Amino acid sequence: MKAYLNDPVLNLTAGSLRLLRWLFLGLTWVSIFAVVLTLLALLISGGTVLDTVQRSEEVFALLLGGVAFFYLIARFLRALRDVVLSVGEGQPLTMVNAARIRSMAWLALTIAAFVFAGSFGYAIYKGFQPLVSIDDAVGLFESALMAAVLFILARVFELGARMQEELEGTV
User: Fold this and answer.
1) What is the pTM of this model?
2) Rounded to whole angstroms, what are the CA distances from 42 to 6, 55, 61, 109, 122?
3) pLDDT number for residue 54
4) Is the Cβ–Cβ distance between 161 and 95 less than 8 Å?
5) How many C-beta atoms surround the C-beta of residue 150 within 10 A?
6) Contact in structure between 97 and 157 (CB atoms under 8 Å)
């Protein structure tokens, strides 16, 4: 039973999430292209490109990190958009949505760990000055809190889907 709701807020949200997802997928491909070009330049020049480019290690690490970071965000946005679309269809309490929200929680934790590892790696590269900023710590806490809320929400969706199945079975 698909009862499509004509809700402008859901339509706007789904469209915005689709646009953001494509933006981050595009950034992922641009980062991959930049990494490949950098590697080709290194192979062609025999490593002398690194000598001429100031802070080339930082740039290369940033490009590699950008590939993973942008891809993770694009995956998160796709799962969120799919949940929003299912709300528009009138069937949000499904096991599929519970799995989507759970994957969003794991992605949020992965992104948080990725950002923290990047900050820590940069601190090591700079000689531990400063080790981790307060912004990094707050961001890590916020991401962990969001992941916890998403895990709980996934459980709520799972229980709601089971209750809905039981209700449909008794009618």
Assistant:
1) 0.76
2) 54, 15, 14, 34, 23
3) 56
4) yes
5) 23
6) yes
